[in-house]
From TrEMBL:
PANTHER family: URIDINE KINASE (PTHR10285). Pfam families: PRK (PF00485), UPRTase (PF14681). It catalyses: uridine + ATP = UMP + ADP + H(+); cytidine + ATP = CMP + ADP + H(+). Belongs to the UPRTase family. Residues 39-219 form the Phosphoribulokinase/uridine kinase domain. GO terms for biological process: CTP salvage; UMP salvage. This is Uridine kinase. Pathway: Pyrimidine metabolism; UMP biosynthesis via salvage pathway; UMP from uracil: step 1/1; Pyrimidine metabolism; CTP biosynthesis via salvage pathway; CTP from cytidine: step 1/3; Pyrimidine metabolism; UMP biosynthesis via salvage pathway; UMP from uridine: step 1/1. Residues 256-468 form the Phosphoribosyltransferase domain. It is an enzyme of class 2 (transferase). Its cofactor is Mg(2+). It comes from Micromonas commoda (strain RCC299 / NOUM17 / CCMP2709) (Picoplanktonic green alga). InterPro entries: P-loop_NTPase, PRK/URK, PRTase-like, PRTase_dom, Uridine_kinase-like. Its EC number is 2.7.1.48.
Length: 486
């Protein structure tokens, strides 16, 4: 199977080949254990600090989409009789939970399906009839509740099981405060419920479930940051098994954070206006360009500060140039000029078409490409080259450009392909064909649709950035029938 993969990488590929190839590699990755979302169960007694632990895990995993599912959302609605005798109803027993619905929800999220989570009304002790909360698929799913590790079906779904272990006195004190201050309950009422149900159920179900935990977090007044760091690190490692960077060391993805995701959220939205699209694309472009520059070779250099102290620094290579892939790549030129004073910037224009002769934007899978125009610095073969193109989709355009750079004498290991969104198919193609060339991107996208657009992608970058609307009209004209398409 792998030998077949390798041969796909050698020659020119069509979009269909690429899709097939990508799915074969993805299968391999999946077998390595990464594709499924990572499911964490967080249990512990009442008021043990489960919510704080979940919040901290979510906060620390900024780069991932994390969703939280509360066991409490899955309380069964009470029958009329139970409702009439609610003071003797045991909300701390596993039978109070609709385990089947909770399990089905988690299984669906594990399949990356969108789910509807019920809303439980704690006043009427029933599920809201026509309301639910839509939860979108995520990389990490946290399910939290006192009985999460006590319910075998739920426990078995979890990749990591955490028990938050807090002293009983402390928990009772917290619960007393919470229920009297926040929920307007009487002290007597809280203590009666605690001694009648909460404590016996804790002793019978919750505390024994601790033995199923992979991690037991001692949780007192402060936060146990060491435990949270270890947990977050473990999740990252597990999710990273699905990372293309494990297959291709030449793929460099910017360290993610909420700023980067926030900017992507803006530009990816179909309702983003042009000025925001340009502004936030420019910010992302600046980040990837700066990051790429950080991968240039350097020499050590010591300077003396105004205080007369020595600073052990570096000096970086000045033999660089940019090459913009016309036209979207030109949107990246300003950022490069802003970082590298007086930098030379060459241009390459690539035309793509499919087997039926249609320009690629209007066609299906099978693409070929030809360089239509180029103007490169005369001494490019002595330089490191930042090849600029904001979107890597099939890789067909960039391959034509990279081949041309190599033909012009640029060493493959001196080319950095700089982009803000790279689809996995394009990454597979470029990384296999140019294993020494670096790809620097701010995000990796899942794949391509049958129009070879990136999914989820950003639509047509060039049209959105430069404000051109209906490119179909442009393509209806005659396009360079004389070109030799390989
Ligand atoms: O990896 P690929 O499948 O080749 O697709 C990526 C290319 O598509 C976009 O250009 P487009 O052809 O839309 O032209 P534009 O730059 O004028 O918008 C983008 O800027 C890349 O050059
Ligand atoms: O999705 C895509 C694919 C190629 N080029 C773009 O601008 N967007």
């Amino acid at each position: 199977m792998l030998e077949r993969n390798c041969s796909v990488g050698k020659g020119r590929r069509s979009g269909a080949d690429l899709n097939e190839f990508a799915s074969v590699v993805d299968e391999r990755v999946e077998r390595n254990g990464g594709k499924e979302p990572f499911l964490i169960g967080v249990a512990g007694g009442t008021a043990s600090g489960k919510t704080t632990v979940c919040d901290l895990i979510m906060h620390n995993l900024q780069e991932k989409r994390v969703v939280l599912i509360a066991q409490d959302s899955f309380y069964r609605g009470l029958t009329q009789e139970e409702h009439d005798n609610v003071s003797s109803y045991n909300f701390d027993h596993p039978d109070a939970i609709d385990v089947a619905a909770l399990v089905e929800t988690l299984k669906n999220l594990a399949l990356r399906n969108k789910v509807e989570v019920p809303i439980y009304d704690f006043v009427t002790h029933s599920r809201k009839e026509d309301e639910s909360v839509t939860v979108e698929p995520a990389d990490v799913i946290i399910v939290e509740g006192i009985l999460v590790l006590a319910m075998q079906e739920v426990r078995e779904l979890c990749h990591m099981k955490i028990f938050v272990d807090t002293d009983d006195d402390l928990r009772l004190a917290r619960r007393l405060k919470r229920d009297t201050v926040d929920r307007g309950r009487s002290v007597d009422g809280v203590i009666t419920q605690y001694t009648t149900f909460v404590k016996p159920m804790f002793d019978t179900f919750v505390s024994p479930s601790k033995r199923h935990a992979d991690v037991i977090i001692p949780w007192a007044q402060g936060e146990n940051n060491v435990a949270i760091d270890l947990i977050v690190q473990h999740i990252r490692t597990k999710l990273g098994q699905n990372d293309l960077r494990r297959i291709y060391p030449n793929l460099i993805v910017l360290p993610p954070n909420f700023q980067i995701r926030g900017m992507h959220t803006i530009i990816r939205s179909a309702s983003c206006n042009r000025s925001d699209f340009v502004f936030y694309s420019d910010r992302l472009i600046r980040l990837v360009v700066e990051h790429a520059l950080g991968h240039l070779p350097f020499r050590n250099e010591i300077v003396t500060t105004p205080n007369g102290d020595r600073y052990n620094g570096v000096t970086f290579s000045k033999k660089i140039c940019g090459v913009a892939l016309i036209r979207s790549g030109e949107a990246m030129e300003n950022a490069l000029r802003a970082c590298c004073k007086g930098i030379k910037i060459g241009k390459i224009l690539v035309a793509r078409r499919d087997n039926d002769g249609l320009p690629s934007a209007l066609s299906g899978h099978r693409l070929s490409s030809a360089v239509v125009y180029e103007k490169l610095p005369a001494d490019i073969s002595d330089r490191y080259v930042l090849l600029l193109d904001p979107i890597l989709a099939t890789g067909v355009s960039s391959m034509a450009a990279i081949d041309r750079l190599i033909k012009a004498g640029v060493r493959q290991d001196r080319i950095m392909f700089v982009t803000i969104i790279a689809a996995s198919q394009g990454i597979h193609s470029l990384c296999m064909r140019y294993p020494q060339m670096k790809i620097i991107t701010s995000e990796v996208d899942a794949g391509l649709n049958d129009q070879n657009r990136v999914v989820p992608g950003v639509g047509e970058f060039g049209d959105r950035y430069f404000g051109t609307e209906d490119m179909k009209a442009y393509y209806d004209g005659d396009i360079d029938e004389e070109l030799h398409f390989e």
